[in-house]
Design a protein that fits this description.
The complex is a heterodimer of chains A (165) and B (193). With 165 residues, chain A is an alpha+beta fold. Chain A has four helices and six strands; from the N terminus they run ααβββαβββα. Chain B has one domain. In chain B, 70% of the residues lie in helices and 0% in strands. Chain B has nine helices and no strands. Chain B is elongated and about 55 Å long. Classes of the chains: A alpha+beta (165), B mainly alpha (193). At the A-B interface, helix 3 of A face helix 3 of B.
């Protein structure tokens, strides 16, 4: 019985930990966007919706065949963007940008924005942190990217192999 | 969701709300919207949290040796306070983006569940709790009381789930949606400006 109680307690403690990992996602990336469909959009900003809980940048991308498509790119909250130095008057309509992000799972012309690069080379992380998006290095609060983490682990392994020899 | 969701009337009302400068200001606000959303979630936790404890007492699962009237007398004021803030913040959040919420299937489901919760609460106060003295101190109140409590817990859980799902736009009005979703979301109205 005592063991049973202990197991229950352990389970009860484990649940919030597991749930906590998921709950940190404000608006889960994986529910709407596909990490396997990264894309780069180039063109002018044609419309911006400074709305809660996500701002939307409409970007007129020129396709390879010369046709143009307007994409809706999801960004962080207006408050998040302001704290990264972007407010509603700092990106005038017509501003040329390069946006990299991930397409939506339903394959509509929507994307989750990661980095937005301006003509002067300045880059801004336009997304939200902690949404479960791929660790691609765009989010400065995230630390090492998956690739960097792999490199780090590989280096450590090589080190320990050397020690063994 | 038939005639009560006559799209034209609801849509025009939402569009009218949406035309207010204050609605836009709220939707685009830097601080007020996030504060409203946080307060809404916290007061939902307060209100539903207290409600669930009372329901557990009425179901005969918890606080069995405390008379129902004593328990409700102590905790219900907190619940009512939470309820008022929850309703005010909820209405303001709707006011910030009325057209989108009006055509969001999860929001519509949430409203239907809220109506069921209200009818259930009315049933409890008007019918079931009339003879409360008789079962006030019973560890396990009569079946009618337990049924109302079970309904309350389930419906409020549904309200919270549906509320959370509003954030996901899988069922946004558009040509790719099934006839059922188009009907349920009241998409008959052309949303293009």
């Amino acid at each position: 019985m005592n063991n049973m109680k202990r197991a229950c307690l352990a389970a009860a403690c484990a649940v919030p930990v597991l749930v906590g990992v998921k709950a940190s996602a404000h608006h889960a990336f994986g529910a709407e966007f596909d990490p396997n469909r990264p894309l780069i959009l180039r063109g002018p900003v044609v419309k911006i919706e400074w709305t809660n809980p996500h701002a939307w940048f409409h970007i007129e991308h020129t396709n390879d065949d010369g046709t143009k498509t307007v994409w809706m790119v999801e960004a962080g909250t207006p408050n998040t963007l302001l704290r990264r130095g972007i407010h509603r008057n700092s990106v005038p309509i017509g501003t040329q940008v390069v946006v990299d992000g991930y397409q939506s799972k339903d394959l509509s012309k929507r994307a989750n924005g990661r980095n937005m690069t301006f003509a002067n080379g300045e880059t801004m992380f336009m997304g939200s942190s902690g949404t479960g998006a791929p660790r691609d290095g765009a989010d400065p609060t995230e630390g090492a990217t998956d690739q960097e983490q792999k490199n780090l682990e590989a280096a450590k392994e090589a080190e320990s192999d050397k020690e063994k020899e | 969701m038939d005639s009560r969701y006559e799209p034209s009337v609801l849509h025009s009302f939402a569009a009218w709300l949406d035309s207010h400068a204050w609605s836009t200001a709220l939707h685009e606000s830097l601080w007020v919207w996030p504060l409203l959303e946080s307060t809404h979630v916290l007061t939902v936790a307060l209100f539903v949290g207290v409600l669930v404890m009372v329901d557990l007492r009425l179901l005969g699962f918890a606080f069995k040796d405390t008379p129902v009237s004593i328990m409700t007398g102590r905790v219900l004021p907190w619940s009512i306070g939470g309820f008022c803030l929850m309703v005010v913040t909820g209405l303001l959040l709707f006011y910030a983006n009325p057209v989108a919420y009006t055509h969001n299937v999860w929001f519509r489901l949430k409203v239907v569940l809220l109506v069921i919760a209200a009818v259930n609460a009315w049933m409890f106060h008007r019918r079931v709790s009339r003879d409360r003295e008789r079962w006030d101190s019973q560890p396990r109140p009569p079946l009618a009381v337990r049924l109302v409590s079970a309904t309350s817990v389930s419906v409020w859980a549904g309200v919270i789930l549906a509320g959370r799902m509003i954030a996901y736009n899988w069922f946004e009005c558009g040509p790719s949606q099934s006839a059922f979703i188009l009907w349920a979301a009241g998409c008959a109205v052309d949303l293009t400006p």
